[in-house]
Amino acid sequence: MSKxxxxxxxxxxxxxxxxxxxxxxxxxxxxxxxxIDANSSEIKIELKEAGTSLIKVTDNGIGMDKEDAILxxxxxxxSKIKDESDLYNxxxxxxxxxxxxxxxxxxxxxxxxxxxxxxxxxxxxxGKIIKVENTEARKGTIFEITELFYNTPARLKHLKSLYTELxxxxxxxxxxxxxxxxxxxxxxxxxxxxxxxxxxxxxxKTISSIxxxxxxxxxxxxxxxxxxxxINGFISLPEVNRAGRNHIITLVNGRVVRNQELNRIIxxxxxxxxxxxxxxxxxxNIELDPSLVDVNIHPTKMDIKFSKLEELLDLVKKTxxxxxxxxxxxxxxxxxxxxxxxxxxxxxxxxxxESKEEKKVIELPKIEKPKYExxxxxxxxxxxxxxxKYEERLPLLYPVGLVHGTYIVCQNEIGMYLIDQHAAKxxxxxxxxxxxxxxxxxxxxxxxxxxxxxLSNNEYIILKENFEFLNNMGFDIExxxxxxxxxxxxxxxxxxxFEDLQIRKIIxxxxxxxxxxxxxxxxxxxxxxxxxxxxxxxxxxxxxxxMEELINDLRKCHNPFNCPHGRPTVITFTKYELEKMFKRxxxxxxx
Length: 591
Ligand code: ZN
Ligand code: ZN
Description:
- The protein is an alpha+beta fold and 591 residues long.
- Helices cover 33% and strands 25% of the residues.
- It contains 18 helices and 26 strands.
- It has an eight-stranded mixed β-sheet with strand order 7-6-5-8-3-2-9-10. A five-stranded mixed β-sheet has the order 11-12-17-14-15.
- The radius of gyration is 31 Å and the shape is elongated.
- One zinc ion is lined by residues 423, 426, 532, 563-565, 567.
């Protein structure tokens, strides 16, 4: 019996029709997904001119017999959907059927396929079968698409630059490779390999193939579950971030999906660990009962709705935040070792030996391979480093001085550290204010000189509506003549010496409260603003005692590594890096 069944008309209509094939990427997507359906363990995508001259997809899947090979170009033919209920089952990969027919109608397609015995070649151009013949019997399927859109000049024009086409194909292949680490993918354009994965079913290796070893080294593994969901995957350290949000990849039951709320919560979980306009690299797979999702199927995209969304968002956020909260996140200043460095070290060693006037044969010293350079990922046996205790995430640091009135120089046995005193104090302030704002107490301090503030008529109207809000924060605020208010007491936690400034900032923030007011966001913003204003200014010379106090306060923070705006508070030059920079590496004798 033929594997491909003709879908009935109703089902076909249910599938959102329309622009199935609009870009080179949609052709690649269709062919690759066919290859996945055919149980391929290896899929090779070759392009010429970003697919505009050639798209060739070769797989080692189960292949088709002659009957299916011809039928596969039939409109409404599909082997993937058997009945209507499958449409809502995310376990089913396909919902296509008309795509191949569409591709064949606007290009020249040569299909070679075999189940291992006799092979079939089908050539279709502009939707018409030109040739069907027997061919070599290599198991698997090869699709070659040329002259794409030759008979639809409007669509041809619609194609963007080659660069744009190639980048959207690459983005798609990256995602599909991440969702199928068990498949070996190769993507080649004009003979240049863009992506090569090894099909070892190791997600971190796939991440490494796409983003490189340096990024893979800075990915953290996450695992968690509740009654309905199991989540696992990798999240980047906050220092690894990108300008665009399209490196946040969510999979549901192994399939790439789009869900804005999910993307947002993933990014939000990094809040204050990185600047808000930078985005992490994240690959998360969510396993769940397919009945918990509603899939809005459109041939070119995959939107998904979860029936227990809040629960899922909570789980994802908790998992990421917990992971980040357990890391030591001090960026290490690294300098790559190159051949020049090695030569320099060798020369110097030779000199040392000669200076001792030892007449024995000079042996080139074996360079002790530096510890850090050695770190390549052992993907199969990842050592689970022990997570530092909460209060020890920022190690003990001993201040030795201040440079430029801005950076505190510290040291410990690991290396040298620089702390940005403004950013550090800002973090300490921020957590204090956020805590006070989130857990308001009624204690207040009377102002010796009550503060009057004059406002515009409009500001005054808005502010008057918020008197109660301010009262709850710990302010005594009253009307005081035309468009003026008088403040007689303020919350206890305002910073000494900054009271006036902070009161004005709070009033300003209250007046500018957004329409869809979110208290926790408001508190967060306000804390960050107040924290900055009350932090240490540049060119303030702290005493060693004050530095120690600041470091101590910083160590108690939930996130000691970033200011509330995501800038680093501390960076480190490890002892090893310093030795490397001074070309001392591996040379005990140079001490
Ligand atoms: Zn600041
Ligand atoms: Zn800041």
